[in-house]
Amino acid sequence: MAQTDTVTRILDTAEVLFAERGFAETSLRTITSKARVNLAAVNYHFGSKKSLIQAVFSRYLDPFTERFHCALDELQARYGDEVIPLEELLETMARSVLEVPAERNSLKVFMRLLGLAYSQAQGHLRRYIQEEYGSVFTRFTELVRQATPELPDAERFWRLHFVLGTVIFTLSGLDALRDIAEKDYGEHVTVRDLIRRLRPVVVAAMQAPLPSPVAPLAQEA
Amino acid sequence: MAQTDTVTRILDTAEVLFAERGFAETSLRTITSKARVNLAAVNYHFGSKKSLIQAVFSRYLDPFTERFHCALDELQARYGDEVIPLEELLETMARSVLEVPAERNSLKVFMRLLGLAYSQAQGHLRRYIQEEYGSVFTRFTELVRQATPELPDAERFWRLHFVLGTVIFTLSGLDALRDIAEKDYGEHVTVRDLIRRLRPVVVAAMQAPLPSPVAPLAQEA
DNA sequence: TCACGTTTGAAACAGCCGTTTATTACGGGG
DNA sequence: CCCCGTAATAAACGGCTGTTTCAAACGTGA
Questions:
Q1: With an 8 Å Cβ cutoff, is A191 touching chain B?
Q2: What is the mean pLDDT of residues A55-78?
């Protein structure tokens, strides 16, 4: 079937180019010419550039949410009524994130796309992701809440976004950082290696002592 | 003098629009019309859109690097031959970052611009910032090295970028996150409040235990 | 007051953008 | 066989992009 081939070739090319340059900086002509596909094929199969962007995300997020839900099911079944430890939750999430793009070894692309979804304006994208995939995050958040009863709700909310920032920021800018690290320390760092380094940092961040209630950061020392 | 007025009006308008929508998504026509300035003024005063972008960054980074250098001078003078504690270094950096845009209460814009400089492709921008302002970061990194002798060099490098990711990611996406936080917890969070929350998390991240050397993250539990 | 360098102004430039149209080629069921 | 829905193609559409041009206005020293 020629249709499927055209569609996937567009998606394969688009996700790489989007990850490299961003959405606005990647034209449909660049995508279609590099994919050796007619320009009109994008509008024919996807309707618009916006829809193409959403389709690129769905191809990653649909399998991810499914796997993540399953992994959480298994985790809850294993622990029954006991509280699932925080580290277990974090590792489950990490494993689910890693499994999806591992099939096409494109973790870098996946992370870069997630970073773009956050940083790039693209209001429609944030809304789309929120509406389509917000429920998994809500479920995960609730489990984290049970695992960290000592944290006030607001504090936990912000800390989750802190560590989310660390992970997405690091892995989405990995290529640039890797160049610097290689030049300075000679060692070629792998994604797996980076995640090994991230683990204790993330755990420590979540378990950090509560901030002082009066906020004297900018005072003169 | 009318020239100076035109230049600053362009810069004032451009930095806000860039921060809101990104570089590619902000046209010169949008900038000049909102700044009530002729379209050609940008190319006349700055030469090109690229140069305008760099000028926007310079206006923040030049005062920042100067203040930061002075603050580090003072810190080194105060501690003499003693090692400067890590918390002291982090707070000095935070204070320097906060002081600059405080004059025009535009910290949000500043952070968003930093985030864009990282996430947006814009190779020319990264190169420009690296060449122009890399030395301050090098100096700061060396002081952090002395403050954390127990960390291997590579580990420290990555952790600095981890916390950098947290701060930039959080503060540059602050508006979106604030909306969610407000809806969920009702409290309106200020930048100052966020920094208060960030402090213990950043310190804990830098002081987290070293990762296990064998990297078994993705193994089956 | 005149002349001159600097700054504004309106208009046009070529080029790329996303999208649409109309035509052609394909391929399995009546 | 023909027919018809699906898909690929080339070409054109209007619109917006950054940049350039050239004339007009400005302000300041001679």
A1: no
A2: 96
